[in-house]
Amino acid sequence: MGQVMLLFLGVSMWLLGCRWITHSAEALVIGVNYGLIGDDLPSPDKVIALYTSRSITRLRLFNPNATVLEALQGSAIEVILGTYNEELQRLSTDASYAADWVQTNVAPYASSVRFRYINAGNEVIPGKLASYVLPAMRNLDSALRAANLHVPVTTAVATQVLAVSYPPSQGAFSESAAGVMAPIAAFLQAKKSPLLVNVYPYFAYAGSPRDVRLDYALFTAQDVVVRDGSLGYTNLFDAMIDSMYAALEKSGGTDVDIVVSETGWPSGGGGVGATVENARVYNNNVVAHVAGSGGTPKRPAKATETYLFAMFNENLKPEGTERNFGLFRPDMSEVYHVVLSP
Ligand SMILES: *[C@@H]1O[C@H](CO)[C@@H](O)[C@H](O)[C@H]1NC(C)=O
């Protein structure tokens, strides 16, 4: 009896400890992607003012852009900065190009812009550019260290790197991705840097609306939908992240954290389930989920750092749902309201 009581007390203290940690040190974990594929978007200084006025303290920028980086100076917003996929080959083979990249895109701003991560490539694994990713990461890491800039270097992957994602504990990289992902996992593990993953329950739902429950995708299911050993999943977002954790563990990345570099839901464009109401529900629930309860069933102690996609509807993206992921219209009015700083 005494031991059971002690165990109970111990677990309660531990739970309290976890809640305290997630609520103090990592109280605000939401960021928003700033995509620029539109010809009607507001100027970067207006955009950064909008981030600030909505208390959005993290931003992901897909490619270096001097105007945006200048607008970010002094803003206290933390920034994930990506390379162009087209420059991965050069970055991987030419150390001086990587040094120039850092001198052009990071060093001039480093005293007034808070760089959180640099990502070499977005969603190029598997594929013909995949083999350039790790050498590009290495060259960027060396160049940053040579410049005395301490910014973790990583890459952003889609969940398409997985061959198996269900149930989450069976998550495994595909054969074509595994050869590239294993050494990347080792690099990230050694550097204690996270892997960026783009996580879209929407596409899983839209691809098989008969098999994937909408409430499971939207965080509105009341009960466990997927039971996986001792773990229960009430939402697809956590299940997708945990399948990626399982794959990382099998590839030597046992301690690598996952940062969700993109997630979102389209508010229009004709896709299955692409409505303003679903987008509003999804985005509000994902924010509440990561800001409130913290992590996933597999990694409950630490809130999942998450970046919504995206700030604006972008009119030069492919027609359809792709143009309709924005929280805001180009005139900076809300497409729907999201509580971004709970
Ligand atoms: C940087 O962003 C500005 C503002 O959106 C845009 O006009 C410009 O073309 C961008 N520059 C590059 C190099 O992408």
UniProtKB/TrEMBL annotation:
SUPFAM superfamilies: (Trans)glycosidases. The keyword Signal applies. Pfam families: Glyco_hydro_17. The keyword Hydrolase applies. Residues 1-27 form the signal peptide. GO terms for molecular function: glucan endo-1,3-beta-D-glucosidase activity. It comes from the Eukaryota. GO terms for biological process: carbohydrate metabolic process. Keywords: Glycosidase, Hydrolase, Signal. Belongs to the glycosyl hydrolase 17 family. This is (wild Malaysian banana) hypothetical protein. It comes from Musa acuminata subsp. malaccensis (Wild banana).
